[in-house]
Amino acid sequence: MVKVYALGGITPVVHPDAFVHPDAVLIGDVIVGPDCYVGPCACLRGDFGRIRLERGANIQDTCVAHSYPGVEVLVEEDGHVGHGAVLHGCRVGRNALVGMNSIIMDGAVVGADAMVAAGAFVKAGMAVPPGTLVAGMPARVVRTLSPQDIAKKSAGTRMYQELARRSLAGMRLVDALTSEQDRHTSHAGKGAPAHTQD
Length: 198
Prior knowledge:
The protein is mainly beta. Helices cover 12% and strands 32% of the residues. Strands 1, 2, 4, 6, 8, 9, 11, 12, 14, 15, 17 and 18 form a twelve-stranded parallel beta sheet that branches. It has an eight-stranded mixed beta sheet with strand order 3-5-7-10-13-16-19-20. The model is unreliable at 192-196 (pLDDT under 50). Residues 178-198 are annotated as: Disordered. GO terms for molecular function: transferase activity. InterPro entries: Hexapep, Transf_Hexapept/Carb_Anhydrase, Trimer_LpxA-like_sf. Pfam families: Hexapep.
């Protein structure tokens, strides 16, 4: 069951086709659209500015989204935000990827189909050009992405959209087993596909 916190009379909105892990924290002016995935220990604090996730976006484990008064954090359709990233007063464009443990600062815009490398620092006000890869501290454009790069990213995002559906349908709190015997297993160790750059 999704746990959300109203603040100042404003309650988060979670579309019924979105999955928000029960250990995520949503406060105040937060809007989660359809087919979105919000991972465990993610924190979306809409206590000053609004946080909006459009259709099919994902915010993974331990991500933080926050802003200052009157400014919205927006993750557009199919936006993909990797583990531990911080979004502050910024916009992530359609089908863009924000890599693990990267930081996107106030007023920055990550363009459509762009990628921010893991651990990058996108400074305040930076405009990441559409279809490019940025990396570094501060982030700089490294190269233009190929159609294959963008297709791989899109495939990774579709995996998270499917994970949202699987989690809605079958995730539940249970007691741990005490043995591996007769236990179902995942595909781990059986040639699982490589993860995307999240």
